[in-house]
Amino acid sequence: MASSIFNLLPNLEDFHYATHYEKLFLNQHWVLVNGISKKKAVYIFKNENLLHIHENHKTIETSWTLETKNIFSIKTEDGKVIVKAYFKDEDILVLKKPKTNDCAVFINENSYSNSLNSVEDVQQFLHDKYKEKATNIIYEHEFYYIEKSKEFGPFTVEELSKKVYENTISEYCFVRDVNEYNYNKRLRIRDLIYT
């Protein structure tokens, strides 16, 4: 996969045995995002260095080895491949060939309520995942609001939501982030509440 995809995933964390191995890595259904538009491939890394690859209703059994820290060797039909392992969250695994731009991106299907069978499913998964993450960040953040030319705050989204629910302020009041100096973004309380 092109390095541009690898670069789209900032803040990758190196595979760490104590943190990732049993809890996040082993026995998970890792769906290969690369090429999912043509076929679905699911990788399951198992104990005793077994790797099951489910593809087109058949299972290929091969092997993998943790060489050092975050470097793995995987036996494939084409021979032995050396890759570095990274996590972008608990459910996104990236395997990158060292000193190349080739990488493979996997999503843990176990952490998603639906099957990942297409590009659209992957897009929906990522949309849902990061919308939830953004919502959580927004709810913990603070904002000022302006009503009748007066500024109030700062308040969390939960506090603003409560004020709207109690009809003490309008959901159409403009808000600004505590780190902004004006209301040029034209963001309203309702934009925060209904994200």
Would you kindly provide a written description of the structure presented here, covering whatever features stand out?
The longest helix has 22 residues, at 119-140. The chain has helices at 3-7, 17-25, 119-140, 157-165, 189-193, and strands at 13-14, 30-32, 41-45, 50-55, 58-68, 71-76, 79-89, 92-96, 103-108, 142-147, 150-156, 174-177, 187-188. The protein is built from 5 helices and 13 strands. The strands form 2 sheets. Strands 2-3-4-5-6-7-8-9 form an 8-stranded antiparallel barrel. A 4-stranded antiparallel β-sheet has the order 11-10-12-13. The protein is α+β, with helices and mostly antiparallel strands and 195 residues long. The relative contact order is 0.11. A hairpin with a 6-residue loop joins strand 8 and strand 9 (103-108).
Q: Going across the major beta sheet, what is the strand order?
A: 2-3-4-5-6-7-8-9
Mean pLDDT: 86
The termini sit apart by 33 Å
Ranges where pLDDT stays below 50 over 5 or more residues in a row are none
Q: Judging from the principal axes of the Cα atoms, what is the shape?
A: elongated
- Write down how many β-strands occur, each being a DSSP E stretch of 2 or more residues: 13
In DSSP terms (H or I, runs of 4 or more residues), the helix count works out at 5
Give the amount of beta strand, in percent. Answer: 35-45%
